[in-house]
Design brief:
This protein is an alpha/beta fold and 580 residues long. The protein is built from 25 helices and 17 strands. The strands form four sheets. Strands 11-12-13-14-15-16-17 form a seven-stranded parallel beta sheet. It has a five-stranded mixed beta sheet with strand order 2-4-7-6-5, with helices on both faces. The protein binds 2'-deoxyguanosine-5'-triphosphate, calcium ion (2 copies) and zinc ion. One calcium ion binds next to loops.
Length: 580
């Protein structure tokens, strides 16, 4: 519920702008500070209210960064950031979304070609201006063209992990507005889609205008986009937030309608029509006695439901369908047959099987990650630092000897910890599907995660199946290697990979990091159909990131997964047995 991510994003933008101008060291300092601010377990805003000294208690946050954080919470702006934006007037966020284009390239292309926007970048590449520049070639120009196309498709869609906290903040704010009864998120955010076009919010009230006023007066709103008598839209942290206010009797029907998806609603509407019923945002109406139901007004007919969402589905003789499933992927037929799955919940998850420590690129020690897992409420955690190999740069990964040493430390921590600590590794799946860790080391580990980190384009089916068939692999980590909105990752035949996973007792990871969500919901559904097991893991690089597990759980729910399908919904003994 905090604004930590928001101020972290500004510190990162500042770092990018400095880096684009070839400033040394400072950009890294700002990025480290940004990471720690984002992950800080309490509201940094509260520290800011106490002053810069309090903010400087956050790890890696020095005095001048702390002052900027305080300035932001006091004034809504950071003067020095504004100055940097004026010196380099580029759409940094959009441009660096193009794969292979970093802040330095942005600064360079602005200096030499005046590129400010994605459009400028595309036309410079199309007209062959980039290949003419020293340090660039035809290949880099083509890569930029391909990257622009992808960056354009994703433009305007925010990551779930950024949008969800904003939505929860506005709901929390509404909880204290006396005129409001029930209120909830709707739209793609309620369905936990991986990216969000805008945040939709519904509130119940008899005093609609008071609610609209409270909404547009919210201190977090940076602009009011529109305001009417029963709906309004504001901008918060760059996102559009849409509000609808309805009377209590129509709250359930409005919630059902505005949750979507559009395709779920269309199929549900047709299902209703076949039964002589009409369903819309105002309720369910029996129209069998009307002369011309097609020509009837929205609220005409005998109203049979609408106060609650449950009543809407019940009027169609259907059980309530969880929002994550409302994507028109067979959920209405399943509900009609009484075959809805009993979806996995956040409370079902008992441990995390993928996390990193200072041994590779994590921020905290094995003991700290174990203590953090206990505090989070887990029963067990698996330490799975990067092994060296293809895709690991800058000496991040551990070689076989280091892994042997690490196992000894894990055993020592395990002896004292409040959770079971498994010794694991995140090995690299090379381009041929090989695993680059010695067999005797693999044999000493409790659990082996294997993930692709290099050559993340083209078809990866054979490569992933080969990794699954390796006798020591237990979990296939982030199978596509995609980064949402940034990198497409591997293509692969999901059904073939899921079958191989089921046959070889390998779990497919649902990596819960909001940048990844890999497997995505659609692939989880195929995996579950094929009888494969999934593992909902956070890939945490600090204890704060254990909290991302909810994004993985809801992604698994989008794939109809039940607790029985999830490896880390088992107890520690069950996990050990699976990995045998
Ligand atoms: P987004 O914002 O692009 O991530 O996706 P949604 O699903 O939140 O879509 P949005 O914000 O345009 O509309 C919210 C919900 O309202 C949507 O999920 C279903 C409902 N809705 C909007 N337009 C239509 C429509 O033309 N037909 C139907 N049946 N439902 C609609
Ligand atoms: Ca929406
Ligand atoms: Ca909307
Ligand atoms: Zn990885």
């Amino acid at each position: 519920m905090s604004r930590n991510a928001e101020v972290a994003a500004l510190l990162e933008e500042y770092a990018d702008l400095l880096e684009a101008r070839d400033v040394e060291y400072k950009p890294q300092a700002y990025r480290r500070a940004a990471d720690n601010v984002r992950d800080y377990p309490e509201d940094v805003e509260e520290l800011a209210a106490e002053g810069p000294d309090a903010v400087a208690n956050v790890e890696q946050v020095g005095d001048s960064i702390a002052e900027k954080v305080v300035e932001y919470f006091e004034t809504g702006e950071i003067e020095e950031l504004n100055e940097q934006r004026e010196t380099l007037p580029v759409e940094m966020e959009a441009l660096t979304r193009v794969e292979g284009v970093g802040p330095k390239t942005v600064g360079d292309l602005y200096e030499r070609l005046g590129v400010r926007t994605l459009e400028d970048l595309e036309s410079a590449a199309r007209e062959g201006e980039i290949r003419e520049l020293k340090g660039y070639g035809e290949k880099s120009e083509q890569n930029i063209l391909d990257g622009v196309e992808f960056a354009r498709q994703v433009q305007g869609r925010e990551l779930l992990g950024n949008a969800r906290p904003i939505g929860e903040q506005v709901v929390a704010y509404f909880d204290d507005v006396p005129e409001i009864g029930r209120c909830a998120l709707a739209g793609s955010l309620r369905r936990w889609r991986e990216t969000i076009g805008d945040v939709d919010l519904l509130a119940e009230s008899e005093e609609k205008e008071a609610v609209v006023d409270a909404f547009t007066d919210w201190e977090r709103a940076s602009a009011v986009i529109e305001a009417g008598t029963d709906k309004a839209a504001i901008r918060v942290a760059g996102m559009r937030v849409d509000l609808r206010v309805v009377v209590p009797s129509e709250y359930g029907s409005a919630l059902q309608y505005f949750t979507g998806s559009k395709n779920h609603n269309i199929t549900l509407r047709n299902y209703a029509i076949e039964r002589g019923l009409k369903i819309n945002e105002y309720g369910v109406f029996d129209v069998s006695d009307l002369d011309d139901p097609q020509a009837a007004g929205q609220r005409e007919g005998e109203r049979v439901a609408g106060e609650t969402e449950e009543s809407m589905y019940a009027a169609l003789d259907l059980p309530w369908i969880p929002p994550e499933m409302r994507e028109d992927r067979g959920e209405i037929a399943a509900a009609a047959k009484g075959d809805l799955p009993d979806l996995v919940t956040e409370a079902d998850v008992r441990g995390d099987l993928h996390c990193h420590t200072t041994w590779s690129d994590g921020d905290d020690t094995i003991a700290e990650m174990a203590a953090g897992a206990a505090e989070f409420g887990h029963d067990y955690v698996c330490i799975s630092d990067h092994a060296t190999g293809p895709g690991m740069v800058g000496g991040v990964g551990l070689d076989d000897d280091e892994l042997r040493e690490q196992v000894a430390e894990v055993r020592a921590v395990d002896a004292d910890a409040d959770v079971d600590v498994f010794a694991g590794v995140e090995a690299n799946v090379d381009a041929e599907g090989g695993i680059s860790v010695a067999d005797d080391v693999l044999a000493d580990l409790d659990l082996v995660v294997a993930s692709p980190h290099n050559a993340l384009d083209g078809d990866g089916t054979d490569r992933l199946v080969a990794a699954i068939e390796h006798p020591s692999v237990d979990v296939l980590g982030h199978p596509s290697g995609r980064l949402i909105n940034r990198r497409q990752g591997l293509d692969y035949d999901v059904r073939a990979v899921a079958q191989a996973a089921a046959d070889n007792d390998v779990a497919l990871e649902v990596n819960a990091n909001p940048n990844r969500l890999d497997l995505p919901g659609g692939a989880v559904q195929v995996a579950v159909e094929e009888g494969a097991t999934i593992a909902v893991d956070t890939d945490a690089h600090s204890p704060a990131e254990y909290r991302n597990v909810r994004y993985g759980v809801h992604t698994a729910r989008r794939g109809w997964a039940e607790a029985a399908d999830v490896l880390n919904a088992r107890d520690a003994g069950g996990v050990r047995e699976f990995c045998h």
